[in-house]
Amino acid sequence: MNPYHFTYNFLAFGLSLIVLPAIWCHEKKDPERKAALTQRLGYDLHHLNPVMPGHPRLWIHAVSVGEVKAAETIVNALNKSCNNVSILLTTTTMTGQREACKRFAGRATVRYAPVDLWGATRRFLGALRPDLLVCMETEIWPNWIANAHGAGIKTVFINGRISDRSIRAYMKIRGLMKPALEKVDAFSMISEADARRIISLGAPAHRVQINGNAKMDAPDLDRDDAGVQRLRQLFAVNENTPVFIAGSIRGAEAEILMAVYDRLAMQIPGLLFILAPRHLNRSSRIADIARAKGIEWQYRTQLGETGAARSAPVVILDTIGELRDVYSIASVVFCGASLVPLGGQNVLEAAVWSKPVLYGPSMEDFEEARILLETAGGGMCVKDEMDLADRAVHLLMHPNEARRMGRLAKRAVLTNQGAARRHARVVAELLTNVKS
Question: I want to staple 357 with a disulfide (CB 3.0 to 4.6 A). Which of 32, 212, 223, 379 is the partner?
Answer without folding.
Answer: 379
